[in-house]
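A reminder from the course coordinator: this example appears on the midterm review sheet, so study it carefully.

Given structure:
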């Protein structure tokens, strides 16, 4: 009962994410009593019923859809339970997997707080102004030109080009951990954008012209002559970054022992909390303007577990599991998650 009650209130608070007073909130996978016109058995059904500008909130499950209208799709974060998770950030538990294909009318859609997210444009569809915020998963480009995608505060498993002949312009990737960046020769010359306060594990910028600032390269790095690096840190053992512009290169041994509290050994830290800077780290205050390098620096620091920017009830307590007293006292612990 406590869980159902807390989820119902969370859904009510989703109103704050809608910028259109007439937009509706739709739920997928809600396990309470379904409400007609609000609750749907699949993401595709919710999409088909939605109007442009509506929000869709996902509960635990495996969801697949082709999106061909502007939507705001929300989850409840990642690394919220199990090994190396962040405790007490979210009351919702359960695995989430979301596979989304973007049609041409999906431009200006946004995804936030989603675990297990895979996003790819439909073949031959031009999809612009996509925002991926506080999500964990795989993000792909295809065979067209895609403009003004924003990837912010995400834990990225793969950010890659999927099909020959594509191009991405005005790409913005801020405060993300990126396990594999593969913008290789599949993307034609002319791709451009900015990477700010990111952490890269394996990196290939391909032919793109990118500004890379306040970032850290942990391992494999393919330097592209079209990129400009500023106030970033490279690994001399795996492809150093260019000198000058406030850049620095350190050995692999120093990268593993001096930069982050939980890298290369995670220890007692969470999967993403491990990338907090260690005392005395060479990344402290060495970014442009004196900010820290890495995902917790800059003007929009990474948020643990990608909890979406809506109020969440991360803890609910009561005197018992049944209503045996009158009044019946329930205590909610709430955070804004801005």
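Designed residues:
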């Amino acid at each position: 009962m406590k869980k159902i009650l807390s989820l119902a209130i969370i859904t009510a608070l989703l109103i704050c994410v809608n910028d259109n007073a007439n937009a509706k909130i739709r739920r997928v996978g809600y396990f309470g009593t379904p409400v007609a016109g609000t609750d749907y058995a699949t993401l595709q059904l919710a999409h088909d019923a939605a109007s442009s500008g509506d929000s869709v909130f996902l509960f635990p499950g495996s969801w697949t859809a082709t999106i061909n209208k502007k939507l705001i799709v929300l989850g409840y974060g990642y690394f919220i339970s199990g090994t190396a998770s962040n405790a007490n950030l979210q009351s919702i538990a359960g695995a989430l997997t979301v596979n989304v294909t973007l049609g041409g009318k999906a431009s200006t859609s946004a995804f936030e707080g989603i675990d297990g997210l895979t996003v790819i444009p439909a073949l031959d569809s031009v999809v612009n102004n996509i925002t991926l915020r506080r999500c964990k998963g795989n993000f792909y480009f295809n065979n067209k030109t895609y403009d003004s995608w924003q990837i912010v505060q995400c834990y990225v498993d793969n950010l890659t080009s999927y099909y020959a002949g594509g191009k991405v312009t005005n790409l913005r990737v801020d405060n993300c951990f990126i396990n594999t960046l593969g913008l290789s020769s599949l993307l034609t010359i002319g791709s451009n954008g900015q990477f700010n306060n990111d952490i890269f594990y394996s990196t290939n910028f391909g032919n793109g012209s990118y500004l890379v600032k306040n970032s850290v390269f942990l391992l494999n790095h393919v330097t592209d002559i079209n990129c400009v690096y500023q106030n970033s840190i490279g690994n001399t053992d795996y492809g150093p970054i260019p000198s000058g512009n406030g850049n620095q290169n350190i050995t692999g041994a120093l990268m593993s022992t001096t930069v982050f509290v939980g890298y290369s050994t995670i220890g007692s830290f969470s999967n993403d909390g491990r990338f907090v800077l260690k005392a005395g780290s060479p990344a402290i205050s060495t970014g442009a303007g004196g900010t820290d390098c890495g995902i917790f620096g800059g003007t929009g620091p990474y948020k643990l577990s990608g909890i979406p920017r809506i109020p969440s009830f991360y803890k609910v307590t009561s005197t018992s599991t049944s209503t045996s007293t009158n009044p019946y006292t329930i205590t909610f612990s709430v955070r804004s998650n801005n």
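The chain has three helices and 26 strands. Confidence is low (pLDDT under 50) at residues 1-19.
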